[in-house]
Recover the amino acids of this structure.
C-alpha cells in the first residue's frame, strides 16, 4: 500500500470534557476528561494506521509536552519537531445530548529554524516511501518576525521532488492563499462553509456544491472532497460527482470526523487498483470509505480513532440528485 505522510505544522493537545449540560456563565464540573496529542494531521495518521496504512505524522510540538507525546498511543507514528515551551491546547466540551463546543487556542508563531527542521523531517519521511501521498492538515503558523504564515512553496517542492501526490485540509487565510495558486494539489477537502466562502456565494443544494467544487477543479485541483456535515459528502472531479453518506451508530464526539473521513478516502483510493480489478468503481469505493470512516469517528469519544469501522455501510450515489436541498446549519 502507498505510504502516506501527514504534516501538522501547528500540533495540539486535545482536551475533551464531558458534561451533563453546558450553561454560559455558570460553574460546571466535568464528568469525564481526556487529554491526547492531536492536530489534524496526527488524527489523519492515526486513522490511516488503524486502517493498516504505512504512515508517519510530522508534527510540531512544544518541548514541555514531548514526554507526554512519546508515551501516547500515537507515539510510533510521530516524527516530532520540538520547539521551546508548551503545545497549544484545543478544548472540546461535549454535553449529554452530544453537542460539541470547541475552543481552539491560537496558533503560536514558528521560528525560521523550526520551520527548516520541519521541512527536513518531511523530506526524510517522504524519501523512505515510493510514490507517497503528502497530507497538509490544519492551521498554518505564522513564520516568526514576518507577520505571514509559513510558505508552503517549499513543502510543495519537496512533494514534487519525491513524486508525492498532495492532499490539503486547511482553512482561513491558508486556504485562500492556496486557492490563489492550487497547481499541483491533487486533493482538497473543504467543508460546505469553506467552499461557499471560496466561491463567494451560498450553497443550498448538492448541485450548488458540485458547481462550486468544479470551479476549484478548474483552477488546477484534481479532486475536491467536500464534507457536508449531516448530509454526507461529495467527491467532485472535472467529469464526475459521487455522493456518499453513512449513519453513525451513535454521536459521541464530532471533532476529528473530517480527519477520519480524509483518511478513509485515502485508504479507499490506495486500494483503487484492487477495486478496479474486481470490477468496482474506485472513486465510489473511496467515497464510501470516507463516509464510513467519518461516521465511525463520530461514534468515538476521543478525536483519535483507534480501529477501523465495523458494521457501517455507506449509501453511495454515482449519479446523485443535484436538486437535493442541504440541511441548514444547526438543523441536523
Amino acid at each position: 500500500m502507498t505510504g502516506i505522510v501527514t504534516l501538522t505544522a501547528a500540533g495540539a493537545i486535545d482536551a475533551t470534557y464531558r458534561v451533563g449540560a453546558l450553561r454560559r456563565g455558570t460553574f460546571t464540573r466535568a464528568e469525564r476528561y481526556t487529554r491526547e496529542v492531536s492536530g489534524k494531521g496526527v488524527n489523519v495518521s492515526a486513522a490511516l494506521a488503524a486502517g493498516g496504512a504505512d504512515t508517519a505524522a510530522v508534527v510540531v510540538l512544544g518541548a514541555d509536552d514531548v514526554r507526554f507525546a512519546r508515551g501516547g498511543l500515537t507515539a510510533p507514528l510521530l516524527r516530532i519537531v520540538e520547539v521551546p515551551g508548551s503545545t497549544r491546547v484545543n478544548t472540546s466540551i461535549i454535553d449529554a445530548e452530544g453537542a460539541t463546543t470547541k475552543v481552539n487556542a491560537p496558533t503560536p508563531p514558528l521560528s525560521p529554524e523550526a520551520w527548516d527542521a520541519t521541512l527536513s523531517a518531511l523530506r526524510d519521511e517522504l524519501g523512505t516511501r515510493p510514490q507517497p501521498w503528502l497530507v497538509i492538515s490544519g492551521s498554518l503558523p505564522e513564520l516568526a518576525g514576518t507577520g505571514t504564515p509559513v510558505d508552503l512553496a517549499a513543502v510543495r517542492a519537496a512533494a514534487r521532488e519525491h513524486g508525492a501526490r498532495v492532499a490539503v485540509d486547511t482553512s482561513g487565510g491558508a486556504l485562500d492563499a492556496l486557492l490563489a495558486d492550487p497547481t499541483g494539489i491533487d486533493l482538497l477537502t473543504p467543508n460546505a462553509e469553506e467552499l461557499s466562502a471560496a466561491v463567494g456565494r451560498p450553497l443550498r443544494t448538492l448541485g450548488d456544491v458540485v458547481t462550486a467544487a468544479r470551479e476549484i477543479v478548474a483552477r488546477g485541483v484534481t479532486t475536491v472532497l467536500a464534507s457536508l456535515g449531516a448530509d454526507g459528502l461529495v467527491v467532485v472531479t472535472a467529469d464526475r460527482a459521487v455522493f456518499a453518506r453513512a449513519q453513525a451508530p451513535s454521536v459521541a464526539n464530532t471533532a476529528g470526523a473530517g480527519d477520519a473521513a480524509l483518511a478513509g478516502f485515502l485508504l479507499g483510493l490506495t486500494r483503487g487498483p484492487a477495486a478496479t480489478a474486481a470490477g468496482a468503481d474506485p472513486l465510489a469505493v473511496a467515497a464510501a470509505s470516507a463516509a464510513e470512516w467519518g461516521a465511525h469517528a463520530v461514534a468515538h469519544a476521543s478525536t483519535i480513532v483507534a480501529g477501523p469501522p465495523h458494521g457501517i455501510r455507506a449509501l453511495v450515489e454515482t449519479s446523485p440528485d443535484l436538486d437535493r436541498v442541504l440541511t441548514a446549519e444547526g438543523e441536523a
Observations:
- The two ends are 36 Å apart (CA to CA).
